[in-house]
Design a protein that fits this description.
binds D-xylose; binds nickel (II) ion; 8-stranded parallel barrel; 16 helices; about 45% helix; about 450 residues; alpha/beta; 2 domains
Length: about 450
């Protein structure tokens, strides 16, 4: 087991443009191209998810691993395996030219026999990572603690009925936050995979939410204590693995942040397929977060129209990403956040090069979408329509209503005295959909 792990790719993946038929080149992702005065790479802040790309063998609930991943060979000392995995990861990151990666603590370091041993393993692997990051210039978009894999977390971490499990999770987060800070992480993510319930028959949701609120406060307090200047992000997901998760969607998390006085301290990491699972779409979730001022980052993947679980495909829909990016840019763009490909290969994509094809496709999709969104914004394509649509509210009646100057009684008088009969106006949806399609096709 030794480098190079990706011998078919010698040089970093280059931008070759739309004329290129080289499958190992970017057609849209032109990292230094200026888009609205900002480099494409700085707009998108693309990131590779360590867990799916380097830690997953292709196993699923019905079958064993399929992928060619020599660094995951069983029967090797776990720390030696972790080092091999990291060598493979940074070779890939450097050759792909992605500026960031993301990890769970248990992706980069194995769980030891005791908490202390796990903690020591994690700190050793963080030292290794620091060396690779220094040499390659790759940054850390976010770190996170895996609070869902180990059997101790079967009934949740912060929402567990046993306070000892809460304490264990807190201790794990304390270590992970610490190494995220040390590695210059731009964010720290909390995904509550088992913060929910399987049945209400044995669950006290009020108590569990209070526990979750307390947990988040501990994370925020510690962040300030150690001087971590990244953002704390919650990642909404409605269910899976549990039947119901408290962080259901953007609206539910926003209400949670308000209820526990965490607005201003915690933002959101929105995942495309989690939006779909919640019965929304990505566009909706991003718009909800931008309008509430709580957008942090994006996990860019896609679901499958016919599968109701988190399939985590690499994103291919330029339209979907363009609409999300249009909201993001309209809200001022990403600051600490980025586009993390929380996406995995299909189980039959067994060749190591498939990892490159997948990420190239994902980065090209978001790059193309960025150009579409920026151009639509520059042209005011939707803004003008929206402004016009609400123009009545700038008039006397609209202003008086909004400023609280009209009672129900007043409005009754207003309508009956004029015998008013407002007429419907076209929402123009089809024309707007065609307009978006034209931008997708025409942007270069
Ligand atoms: C799972 C989540 C997970 C988080 C990180 O569905 O997307 O991968 O992003 O814990
Ligand atoms: Ni995710
Ligand atoms: Ni997910």
């Amino acid at each position: 087991m030794s480098a190079p792990f990706f011998p078919d790719v010698g040089e970093p993946i280059a931008f070759e443009g739309l004329e290129s038929d080289n499958p190992l080149a970017f057609r849209w992702y032109d990292r230094d191209r200026l888009v609205g005065g900002r480099r494409m790479r700085d707009h998108l802040r693309c990131s590779v998810a360590y867990w799916h790309s380097f830690n997953w063998t292709g196993f699923d609930v019905f079958g064993a691993g399929t992928l060619d991943r020599p660094w995951l060979r069983p029967g090797v000392d776990p720390m030696e395996q972790a080092r091999g995995k990291m060598a493979a990861a940074f070779e890939f990151l450097e050759k792909l030219g992605a500026p960031f990666f993301c990890f769970h603590d248990r992706d980069i370091a194995p769980e030891g026999a005791t908490f202390q041993e796990s903690s020591a393993f994690l700190h050793q692997m963080a030292d290794e990572a620091a060396g690779y990051m220094e040499r390659t210039g790759v940054g850390l978009l976010w770190g996170t603690a895996n609070l869902f894999f180990h059997p101790r977390y079967a009934a949740g971490a912060a929402t567990n009925p046993d306070p000892d499990v809460f304490a264990y999770a807190a201790a794990q987060v304390r270590d992970c936050l610490e190494i995220t800070r040390r590695l210059g992480g731009a964010n720290y993510v909390v995904w509550g995979g088992r913060e929910g319930y399987e049945t209400l028959l044995n669950t006290d949701p009020r108590r569990e939410l209070d526990q979750l609120g307390r947990f988040l406060h501990l994370v925020v307090e510690h962040k300030h204590r150690i001087g971590f200047d990244g953002a704390i992000l919650i990642e909404p997901k409605p269910f899976e693995p549990t039947k119901h998760q408290y962080d259901f969607d953007v609206a539910a998390v926003h209400a949670f942040l308000q209820r526990y006085d965490l607005v201003g301290e915690v933002k959101l990491n929105i995942e495309v397929n989690h939006a779909t699972l919640a019965g929304h779409d990505f566009h909706h979730e991003v718009a909800a977060a931008v309008s509430a001022g709580i957008l942090g980052s994006v996990d860019a993947n896609a679901g499958d129209d016919r599968l109701g679980w988190d399939v985590d495909r690499f994103p291919l829909s330029v339209e979907q990403m363009s609409l999300g990016l249009h909201e993001i840019l309209g809200g001022g763009g990403l600051t600490t956040g980025g586009f993390n490909f929380d996406a995995k290969l299909r189980r039959q994509s067994v060749h190591r090069n498939d990892l490159f094809h997948a990420h190239i496709g994902g980065m090209d999709t978001v790059a193309h979408a960025l150009l579409v969104a920026a151009k639509m914004l520059e042209d005011g394509a939707l803004e003008q329509v929206r402004r016009e649509r609400y123009s009545g509210w700038a008039g006397e009646l609209g202003q008086a209503i909004l400023s609280g100057d009209r009672s129900l009684e007043d409005l009754h008088g207003y309508v009956s005295s004029r015998n008013a009969s407002p007429q419907p106006v076209s929402g123009g949806q089809e024309a707007l959909e065609n307009l978006v399609a034209r931008y997708v096709d025409q942007v270069r």
